Amino acid sequence: MMVIDQPISAQRSDLWKLILLVTIPAIAAMVLTFGGAERLLPPASWWSALVNTDNAKSEELLFRHAFMPRVAVSILAGLGLGLSGILIQHLLRNPLAEPTTIGTNAGAGLALTVATLYAPGALENGRGAIALLGGALTTLVVFALAQRRQFSPVAVIVSGLVVSLTCGSASALLMAINREYTEDLFIWQSGSLIQNGDAVARTLLPQIAVCSVLAFMFLRPLRLLEAGDESAGSLGMRPAAIRLIGLSIAVAMSAFVVAAAGVISFIALAAPAFARIAGARTLLQRMVWSPLIAASQLWLVDQLIQFHFGEVAFPAGAATALLGTPLLFFFLLRLKTVTLGSREGTFTAVTPCGMPALLLLAVALVVATGLAFFLGKGANGWGWIAAAQIGELAELRLPRIGVALAAGAMFGVCGTLLQRMTTNSMAAPEVIGASGGASLGVLALFVGTSSIDRLSLGVAASFGAFATLALVLFIAGRQRLSPEKLLLAGTSVTTLASALAALVLASGDPRTDFLLAWLSGSTYTATPSQAIATVVVALLLLSLAPLTVRWLAVLPLGETVSRSLGLGVVSARAILLCLVAIPTAVATLAIGPLSFVGLMAPHFARMSGFRKPAVEIFASGLYGSIILIAADWAGRTIIFPWQIPAGLLTALAGGPFFLIAMSRSR
């Protein structure tokens, strides 16, 4: 999307905003840094402590090998994350993209989890090499899948998201099974800047420097992509090669930071947004200011952690999300426009599908539902339930099946509505804040009370979901329910919830097993009344969603075209958001904050050939139900009598299947 140049006076005003956005956090961080250093040593001893380590006192050793390396790593990590974030968002033309999007962080996390559990000897020389290897392998998988489509933004985004979800679910499953051995991994997955020597800082400095030089040397080809792939190709450039090289630089920087400090993903998402909001108009401006903003903010956050918590291992990623989300909300409220978005289509099959294929999909759902009820595993092994057992097992299985069926349908339909309304392939029910808000409500209840029952859980999740949803809609409503502002605000809430969840899970509280099960998406506690309520809401959604078919066909054409065709854009968006928000909140309350179903069911539908909005709505709902019913059935049978949360299996099993289907689609 092109941006019209502003007058010089406006540019100067924007420059002051950018300078203040960097200098205020940097000055505050510097004051805190000097204060922390003075608590260790008098200023006159700082230089000698840095250069002379012979016969040093304990305070001098702490200053030299812990305090100053931590300052250096926080600044270097911020620079790397800020630059990698803006590169990824520019190359994928999506304001929600960041290193997590393309699988790097999830691959590093899975590699460390496997090494911790099954090859602890590999960690003797540090986690860096393991994290780099895991991140590199998953990124190569993403690039291999995207290569067939000339590294188009949608191909990279979708394959990266699926790889991330699959690796993340595998890590979560391994940690759930081996809970007592992996508490420190929760800390690492939320970022940790604690240092024991300057080896990490010495290694990270040349890595970030080399990647930064390469990125700025590659500026001209990157700028050509702003005009579109066709324009770049007409000028003799190869968009696929530009995207591959640029993503490789960004991934390398992200992997180096992950290896050094763990996963601190919010900075990579927020810093480019701050830069654009504050007035960085050109790519060069964003590449300069985004790293500076990220570095100053991460430096400040880490100093605040040390000031308040001392040397307690408070995750830096959780802290950046906790402090950065309100600031991002404030800037979004003042923002008039967001200029970066994704306008690409998604994958489709060669032959469009209509009602016959939809009926076939409905038959598949009926078969899956029947198998989930009648086929199972018991004390005597696999088998069909006897007629005498139907009444007894119906009380146990029907509520779970009903909740899975209804929640899957709601997530699938809501995903289609959002992706078509925002024209963003990364849009899913979770990004509007309802799921993240429900998680925040449950986390607040978990921290504030000693016992959790079903009623209090439902009340806390409901309050959190609708409170955050109201906040997100208020922010987006200041600019005609802008899809870009809606997605940025909702994603910030979801990121905050994920960071706080990791922090709580790392606390060692014995109740975290219950919390982990709910966050992973499970139907363990489904009741008949809960099943009835979710089915009713799902039926209402399926009856109302087809009425929006015309809007879904027109909105992707853009606001100008939509208005010229007589569509009330704001009212249409508001109604669609209500249709998405309420079922999402209900489904989240029933089964937990699932990530995979609402994101991928619409892509399954389009890859199967369901292109028209009407049939795509129902196909997405059917796919969502099938996925969730199958995952719930597998979760209660694979390791019987123990159970695996459906949310983990949904991504763990559905991810590879989706990637195979994507590789065969056009």
Automatic annotation (TrEMBL):
Localization per record: Cell membrane
Transmembrane segment boundaries: 15-37, 71-92, 104-123, 130-148, 154-178, 240-271, 283-300, 312-333, 354-375, 401-419, 431-449, 455-474, 486-508, 528-553, 640-661
InterPro entries, per the entry: ABC_BtuC-like, ABC_transptr_permease_BtuC
SUPFAM superfamilies attached to this UniProt entry: ABC transporter involved in vitamin B12 uptake, BtuC
Annotated Pfam families: FecCD
Protein's membrane topology: Multi-pass membrane protein
Major subcellular location class: membrane
Keyword Phosphoprotein: no
Source superkingdom: Bacteria
A GO molecular-function annotation: transmembrane transporter activity
Gene3D superfamilies the record matches: ABC transporter involved in vitamin B12 uptake, BtuC (1.10.3470.10)
A GO CC term assigned to this protein in UniProt: plasma membrane
Annotated keywords: Cell membrane, Membrane, Plasmid, Transmembrane, Transmembrane helix, Transport
Biological process terms in GO annotation: siderophore-iron import into cell
Family recorded in the similarity comment: Belongs to the binding-protein-dependent transport system permease family. FecCD subfamily.
Name of the protein this chain belongs to: Fe(3+)-hydroxamate ABC transporter permease FhuB
Organism lineage string: Bacteria, Pseudomonadati, Pseudomonadota, Alphaproteobacteria, Hyphomicrobiales
